[in-house]
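Ticket #4471: structure export looks truncated?
Reporter: QA, pipeline team
Priority: medium

Steps to reproduce: submit the single chain below to the structure queue and open the exported record.
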Amino acid sequence: MRGTSSTSFAEVLRLTEAAFAGDRTALEPAAQELFSVADAIDSSNQLVRTLSDPGRPAEVKEATVRSLFADRVGSQTLEASLEIMRRRWSEQEDILDALELLGVTALLEQAQSEGVLEQVEAELFDVSHLIDDSGELTVALDGSREDPSQRAIILRTLLDGRVHRLSVALAARAVGRRIDTKPARRVEEFARFASDRRRRAFASVSSAVPLNEAQQARLGAVLAGIYGREVQMNLQVDPDVVGGLRIQVGDDLYDATVLARLSRARSQLVA
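Actual output as written to the record:
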């Protein structure tokens, strides 16, 4: 995604990741629901045009999505879909890509919670190479181009029991969408998305009162400085937090005082 779509997706992704972090019990079902919403919209050119039309009021798009999916998906999936409809997209296909990538994110969130994100990333790259290196598999997948569901079945049959179940689900989804990109490249795209996610640090931030945008930005900059990379923050309000702020990044646990000392020490070292 580029331009407006890139900005819109970043906003939706931030909100959806926060929602996923708040409820990890339904990540895999949510992923499948997001995929099903994308596929249902994709099945109708008129629906795709309607929902991606920048001149159509967001309220109309939201009403359309509610009428189609409110009784078919959970509240988390519905809200994520509505967030997509509230934003502007550069290309009409971008709303389908956004829905799909939110589903991918849910599966990667599950992988992270199980401690297998690195494994899933590696296995997706391996599956991409497997497709490239096997003429027979490439022919089978290319021969089912008009029936993406059959391509997903082929890959599931091949991978079940050989790689993690989340790798199977992601690889099957990668080849199971009607799109011109070659199957191996699609799996590789998902692997790179997983790689980007793994390189980010994740911080659980509890504060006595809600942090405003400026405070969030400053905290994000401090954490990025300490860890040398972007840090995704999951913000929670807990009035009982001592000192007003508690941050956990992996096994590292800080309060506001410790974090301030680390930030000052790093600044002195850089200077």
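Status: closed, not a bug. The export was complete when the record was re-opened. Leaving a note from the reviewer for reference: The mean pLDDT is 86.
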